Amino acid sequence: MKILINTPDLSLPGGVANHYKGLLPYWSEEVKYNFVGGRKGIPGFLMLPYDYIKFTLLCLFNKVDVVLLNPSLGKTALKRDALFLRIAKRFGIKTLIFIHGWDEEVEVKINKTSKLFQSFLLADGFFVLATEFKEKLISWGVTVPVWLTSTKVDDRLLQDFSTSQKNKKSKKLLFLARVEKNKGIYIALEAFKKVQETNKELAFQVAGSGSELAAAKIYCKDHHIENVIFSGNLNGEQLTNAFATSDIYILPTYHGEGMPTSILEAMAFGLPIVSRPVGGLVDFFENDKMGYLVESLDPQDFADKIILIINNSAKLSAMSQYNHNYAKQHFMASKVVKQLEEKIANV
């Protein structure tokens, strides 16, 4: 079976590129990645005519059995991929849609007029990251299969890791995401400050870059938040070390998340999670067993949950082992690929 997958350039940051980069070694079917969107310093809108022509030629000459498109539920992505879908269907190729991020403003517009989503009713199946997304697609008139799937943890990240290696004496929180307001960076910093009042030795590593990075550093200085380590983007050994030397993962995001990969990775490294009930997390997350999903955006509420964990070594240890085992059972890239291939084969 030949599968053609449209994805951003794997060298770029971002959830979709990261997802398919992690899946790459594990495909058993004949899979070709077709890079679309901005790359090599050229904006996406300038690349688009070339991308459409290249995609058409791939469909025409490569004897493709299935196309897998990967938009987010965003206005630009939907418009772009609607034409890719029509091209593939013109050649009689079965086409699946994997919707990653979920923009609630676009959802509201589609609720008002389904015309925005009309082209996608040509698809032969959908992958989504949350039950609520599946229910929305069905309400918009989707009658083909809609499968729940997951983002992934690259198996190679855990090659030399076991929870017994974790330093029981270290006390560190970790935030690993784009440093943006809607990812909850300022909520996380304020929560850390409150926890520090009773845990002076606690450190906080902020890993990632983004438009708020410089402002977040100034915020720490102006608000006297100490012991914060800004480490920028991490890869390879630096990434695994950040997870392996941390105790709790915090992500107070109110961004339109699908399934935050960093949370699954943190679980795989045995970190209890303090986050929010976003996207696919609500389908599997067990409060007080994996950590806590906090409804509010109040830093005090996040601080309270962190304190519940950090001051109770037995709870921290139990959550750590449970999360590690759960992630290895459900989120490893090799297993995610197998599940995807099984669904694709049945289209």
Largest sheet: 6 strands, parallel
Walk across the major sheet and give the strand order: 2-1-3-4-5-6
Q: What is the approximate shape?
A: globular
User: How many beta-strand runs?
Assistant: 12
Derived structural class: alpha/beta
Report the CATH architecture of the largest domain.
Answer: 3-Layer(aba) Sandwich
CATH classification class of the largest domain: Alpha Beta
What is the fold-level CATH name, i.e. the topology of the largest domain?
Rossmann fold
* SSE order, one letter for each helix or strand: EHEHEHEHEHEEHEHEHEHEHEHHH
Helix content: 40-55%
Give a structural overview:
The chain is an alpha/beta fold and 347 residues long. It folds into two domains: 2-152 and 332-345, Rossmann fold, CATH 3.40.50.11930; 155-330, Rossmann fold, CATH 3.40.50. Helices cover 42% and strands 15% of the residues. It has 13 helices and twelve strands. Strands 2-1-3-4-5-6 form a six-stranded parallel sheet, sandwiched between helices. Strands 9-8-7-10-11-12 form a six-stranded parallel sheet, with helices on both faces. Strand 10, helix 9 (261-268) and strand 11 form a beta-alpha-beta unit. Helix 9 crosses helix 12 (313-330). The longest helix is centred in the N-terminal third of the chain and has 18 residues, at 44-61. The protein is globular and about 65 Å long. The N and C termini lie close together (12 Å).
